[in-house]
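User: Hi! I'm working on a homework problem where we have to compare a predicted structure to a textbook description. Could you give me the structure for the chain below?
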Amino acid sequence: MDIPNYVTAVVRALEDTGYEAYIVGGCVRDALMGKSPHDYDIATSALPDETKRALSGLRVIETGIKHGTVTAISDGRQIEITTYRIDGDYRDGRHPESVSFTRNLENDLARRDFTINGMAYGSGGLIDLFGGREDLKRGLIRCIGEPEKRFSEDALRIMRALRFSSVLGFEIEENTALSASECRGLLKKISGERILAELKQLIRGKYVERVLLQFPEIFAEILPELAREIGFEQYSRYHDSTLYEHSARAVGAVKAALAESGDNHVEESETALGLAMLLHDCGKVWCQSRGADGEGHYYGHAAIGAEAADGALRRLKCSNAERERIRGIIKYHDLSIELSGKFLRRQLAKHGDLFRDIIIAHIADDMAKREFCRERIPKYLAALKKLKAIEAEKPCLTLKELAVNGNDLSDIIPPSPEMGNIMKALLYEVIDGTLENEKAALLARAAELVGRV
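Assistant: Happy to help. Predicted structure tokens:
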């Protein structure tokens, strides 16, 4: 393994003082997979005060000294160093009540979540006590020790297992998967923020569709809005799957939809669109009706689903901006798209950047339906292309961008609700392309509208 000098400098400083020191956890996993770790964690036999003395040549910050962790600044980079420890009871399902320090590396590694995260690397090479390297080769997520105990200690590990499976494409070992499902009720003990952080990474995973389909009961636990979707028949000529299966497939289609659209904000858009597609049809379970021909209809489901999703995202402590974006995508995901410049400008004026999300959601949605629905995708791509051309023209889309304001109109009509209505009428005509955004033309048209709006 190729370890950066700023990391080996810390390891050597501890070893030269007579202590053990190993690189541990995710950085070892990533390095063995040929990836460059984003950061490095070190475990040591040195107690926190001993660590500080051994690293006296470096700046050391007591970031979590109660739990044995200090942070060293080596060559301008932060490295967390934690004393080998044994965790006490996890009574809250998230944090140990106490920790005790140990000089034994095996005790420290045994408390970790999965075998692929339970390896250590030091001057003597790789320490792999639980078969982590073999599980990496096999593409397997497996708990260290008893899965039920690991998940009972910290239920967030359930979401981490699913996230690793989604991102890495690994299968979850049979007993680990069974325990994850059986222990899912413990996720109620985990804060919404932590659930959301894992869910966002999971949603962006290349294998998210498979994970969603494999563990519907876990996702229904964290998002009860999805529970009734499981097994829900849509009775629709557009669909060949249950409602939950369609939602999972739509999430899985987001990457391809973004690639088709040429969206440059991939990670941010993947998150918002992924969460939106996961919840986009949750309103259907409340408004299904059947026609005489047996066809399912879902009038108003988008607006109902938007409100339900808003509640779900509030529970997960989603930021206001992201929540509004996702809510908007869901509310308008069934908006009928036209290719006329008038329609596109009006929608751009109404929705702003959200309109692009709405069109991309259409693409992902149709990718998750019957094959013939994909025939509409070229139309959506054409709309995106036209929209880009319209944006490049920097059109007037807001009252602030009009070439006249209230002061300009005051000689024609005094400030009043009617003046406001005239301003809006002028804006719509400019947006529609029937009126130039030029002061003289606008004033002339305003005079014509007095008493008529």
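For your comparison, note the following. The chain has a mean pLDDT of 94. The two ends are 74 Å apart (CA to CA). Good luck with the assignment!
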